[in-house]
Task: structure prediction
Amino acid sequence: MTKSSSAQPGDRRVRRTRAALQRALIDLVEERDLSQIGVADVVERAEVNRSTFYAHYQDVHELAEAACTSMIDDLIGVVLAIDPARANPSTPSENPEDPDPPLTAFFAHFAEHAGLYRSLLGPMGSARVIEHVRLRTTAAAHASGQIPATDDTPTLDTADASVIPHDVPAAFVAGALIGVATDWLQRGCPRTPTEMTIATKPLLLALSTGTEAPATS
Result:
């Protein structure tokens, strides 16, 4: 858990400092494996001192968890901002080369930060991050049209794991997407985000319609 600060949680300086530390780590992970990054590397890149770092985080791993969960929240916001009708199985895609823009955005985000997610979602990863990704993806699946809507489906503005009822299809979609994304990351992202969407979309369609998904190459 992130350390408490003497400043108020909403203090702009606190938010700026944490954002700077998270950005520094994200940049460093693009250059080397997370296990090779120390506090000294982060504070040098963020241009802050070690005492400032420890006022906010216990170690690099906790910083990585905070950066990852923050990015996931931003990603879900972007995905939910995309017209959900474009992801609805009953609506033909406007662009056959990208059958589901929200899904492509999901994979593109993981590809952009592959080093960080590979470390935190892999075999030696963070249970906290994995659970956060699962819950937020469940909420997004429930709200974005990846599964059929029901009367108790929350609106896009209120989509959150805390308001999602026990919904087996939503949980199934979230678990499947995380599993596919993690496997893709561990293999070095051999397909593009759009190719991953093309391969994954028929499986989501099969879940929604109850039909058999066509084989993919």
